[in-house]
Amino acid sequence: MRRRISFLAVVLLCLTAVLAGCGTKDAESVVKDLDKTLNGLGSYHGKGTMILHTGQQPLEYQVDVSYQKPQYYRIALTNAKKDITQIVLRNDEGVFVLTPRLNKVFRFQSDWPANQGQVYLYQTLVQSILLDNSRQFAVDKDAYVFDVMANYQNGSLARQKIWLNKSDYAPSKVEVSDANASVMVEVKFDSFEFGSKLEKSVFDTQTNMGTPAGDKPTTALPSDDSSNSSNTSNNTSDNSSTANNGSSNNSDQAATSPDNNAAQSDNASTNSNADNNTSGDNPDNSASSSTNADNSSNNSSDNSSSNASEDAEDTMAPAGSQSFVALEPSYLPDGVSEKDQQDIVFGGNAGIIIRYAGDYEYTLIETQPKDVAVSQTKGELKDLGFTVGALSGSLLDGEQQTLTWTYNGTEFRLTSGDLPENEMMKIAQSVQGEMSK
């Protein structure tokens, strides 16, 4: 009898040990495992859905993210309703933001994503867990849940909850909240696979643009966009109906065709009174010609308004000949109101320029380019949630700042000499609804 009891006791102890070993881990054990997983990360591929609650209406995007050691990244964001995709790449050539539908490529000198996090990148999520010593830990069925501080460019995002599968620590869900605990960003992964075998073409710029091999598009050298385009906002306020239209014509001639011959670049500069800018004479500086043409047209609003008017008349389409649906920011900084707006046409592409005044002064230009050539730009990548923008210029250096981004086929350009960066981000993120007229 005693032997039987002893035997049962041993069996129970063994079962307890086995169950304990297969049971739920504590936070410390999971954190150690995550550190090992991150250090040994070779590749992954994930697909899912992202929903943004930062505007008046929720916006849904399909997310496709790929990573290959040591520094290859591909993120594709597709608007579920508009079927428009924007791709962020990092490869041996640099960091690129691609919009294949518009044939647009921006190249950046950037350490992305090391210098900024993305909610759909595994490295960003795990690092936020490892670095937050005040992390909160819970268990939810088949997942470990961490509640940690959010460290994103959008300062209104305060905390995030991260669901990791118990089996392999793959992310299944992420919720990012503001200071009021309201969920602003949701990401749900339908699939996430470690150790994915990714072809080199996945991270190739030409392949993602749909450009045939060997037919490499002409790419202009980076320009100092901050200095050349900085007067867009202030100088248009002196003569909106003439200078703005002149600016739109000339900037488009230079910006949308940087791979045309030098004569076209020179012609664009001449039409915009940019004879003093030498970028048109050098095909390597065609991207600089783009922004110089834009700036020169605006600067000529006081002294050469008649020339700008003539240029504007050449490109202004007859009323009703084209349709352009402008999008209106739902957010305005305190003490700011809309001053005026002007319908314009950029080289045959309909557009609009809106000026705002008050405690801050800034200009928002919207256009719908049908097809533009490949170009490079200097600037800092900014994560807007639904897309990636380029910020050039620095208020600290006495320069005006310009934030450029593309959304649903419309290109936006927000320029100001006094608007703080966080306010620019809020305005850009709020441009969603159609403008009421």
From TrEMBL:
Endpoints of the signal sequence: 1-20
The keyword Cell cycle is annotated on this UniProt entry: no
Region (Disordered): 205-317
Pfam (any one): DUF4367
Segments forming domain DUF4367: 327-431
Bias (Low complexity): 223-252, 259-309
Keywords in alphabetical order: Signal
InterPro entries given in the database record: DUF4367, LolA/LolB/LppX, Sporulation_related
SUPFAM superfamilies on file: Prokaryotic lipoproteins and lipoprotein localization factors
Domain of life according to the entry: Bacteria
Descriptive protein name: DUF4367 domain-containing protein
The species this protein was found in: Paenibacillus albus
